Amino acid sequence: MILEALGTAVLGLLLAWAATGRLAHRLPNRPLVYSTGTAGALLGDFVTHSALGSGSLVVPVLGAAIISAAALSLLLRPARARRSLTA
């Protein structure tokens, strides 16, 4: 169980790292993104582990990835609209 929690925390950090690499201009500061990704993954692991039990390892990790990605998507700011030079 400890290894499962550590694995999902690392998964959350990897998702946050990927988000900051790809969408750095639309996200707030990095410590908030990394902590949100980790907390989302741990919460997703807890929820799916509580709901479905400890039957397999794949389902809680998948739930952790989904909740972490959803939490990270809540941090996204809208893209700035480009102004036309002709207008």
Return Rg in Å: 16 Å
Helix/strand structural class: mainly alpha
Average pLDDT for all residues: 90
Q: How large is the share of residues in beta strands?
A: under 5%
> Helix count?
3
Question: Helical proportion?
Answer: over 70%
* H/E element sequence: HHH
The gross shape turns out to be elongated
Most strands sheet: none
| Extended strand count | 0
Straight-line distance between termini: 60 Å
**Oligomeric category:** single chain
The low-pLDDT segments are none
Summarize the structure in words:
By secondary structure, the chain is an all-alpha fold. The chain is built from three helices and no strands. It has helices spanning 2-23, 30-52, 58-73. Helix 1 crosses helix 2, helix 1 packs parallel to helix 3 and helix 2 packs antiparallel against helix 3 (58-73). The longest helix has 23 residues, at 30-52.
Which labels suit this protein?
87 residues, mainly alpha, 3 helices
Helix-strand blueprint:
Layout lengths: L1 H22 L6 H23 L5 H16 L14
Helix pairs in contact: 1-2, 1-3, 2-3
Could you give a short description of this structure?
The chain is mainly alpha-helical and 87 residues long. It contains three helices and no strands. The longest helix is centred in the middle third of the chain and has 23 residues, at 30-52.
